[in-house]
Every structure is written in C-alpha cells, then in structure tokens.
Amino acid sequence: MNEGVEFTGNAELLKNHKYLKCCHLQGKATNLSIEHVQVEKLESRDRGDDREMLVMYFKGKRLGFGLSANCNIDKMVELHGKMVKKWKGKRIKLFPTTCQAFGKTVDCVRIDKASATKADQEPPDEPEHEEPPFSEPDGLEELM
User: Fold this and answer.
1) Disulfide engineering: 20 pairs with which of 65, 122, 127, 143, CB 3.0-4.6 Å?
2) pTM value?
3) Beta partners for 43?
C-alpha cells in the first residue's frame, strides 16, 4: 500500500495473515491448483497448546490454506482420496461462506470440486478504483 494514499478497501486485508482467509477471496469462489501440502504447527490462542495441521499451497500464490476444519479435510478425501501425495496438481474450488464457531457465526472458507467454466478458473481481479491493500509489489494475486 502506498503511504499517504487513501485506502477504501476491506480492512481485514490489512491484517498480517499467515494463511488464506475468507477476506482474501473477496466474496467470490476461485479455482486453484495445489502445488504442495505440508504439515505446520498451529499455535492455539485459546487452548494454550499447539497442534499440527495440513496446509495446502497453490501454484503462483504465497498464502497457504490451513485445513484446520475437519469438514475441509473430509471434502479433500472425498474429492481426491486419503493419500495426501495424490492431491498435488489437483484443482479445487475455494469459496467464502459462514459457519458456527465459538458460539457465533463467523466467516470461513470451504472446499468444493473445481468449476469447469473458464470465468471461474482465475482468482478475482481487484477493483481498479481501489489501491491494492498490500505493501507487496504484486498485491493480492501473489498473496493468495
């Protein structure tokens, strides 16, 4: 983001996210190709313990998607099998939605079968009238 330039975008995008979040999808589903999957330690804020989770990384994107919700792991198993090594190169669709967690309705990202239409295969473009919300030179396209 350019210093001194008015920002009118989604404030959630300005947080320092380690993993892909609902706000990065900008309200739209997007198809992505899995580059690799690795195990990472997830630090718990509320329980005081750490746990491991699978994190998917996508071709041409910097942010990984943490499979912290069992339903997302179940969907990957349904779509591409139990063996994680077979997920590499597969296309999936990520879409924003909401779910019940911690006693309230929260934004979340879910997985589905990749769409077959060309229009849905690329991540959404940022609106031209808004300054990209990241100080990274390549903006949202490289972060996601």
Assistant:
1) 65
2) 0.72
3) 50
Beta strands (DSSP E) in the chain are 30-43, 50-58, 65-66, 91-101, 104-113
Distance from CA of residue 83 to its chain's centroid?
21
Beta strand 91-101 with 65-66 is unpaired
Question: Which two structure tokens, joined as six digits, stand for 36?
Answer: 């690799």
Could you tell me the domains of the chain? 11-123 (2.40.50)
CB 57 within 8 A of CB 39: no
Question: Does residue 130 have a pLDDT over 50?
Answer: no
Q: How many residues does the chain have?
A: 144
Between CA 99 and CA 33 the distance in angstroms is 25
Q: State whether residue 14 is helix, strand or coil.
A: helix
CB atoms closer than 10 angstroms to residue 114:
19
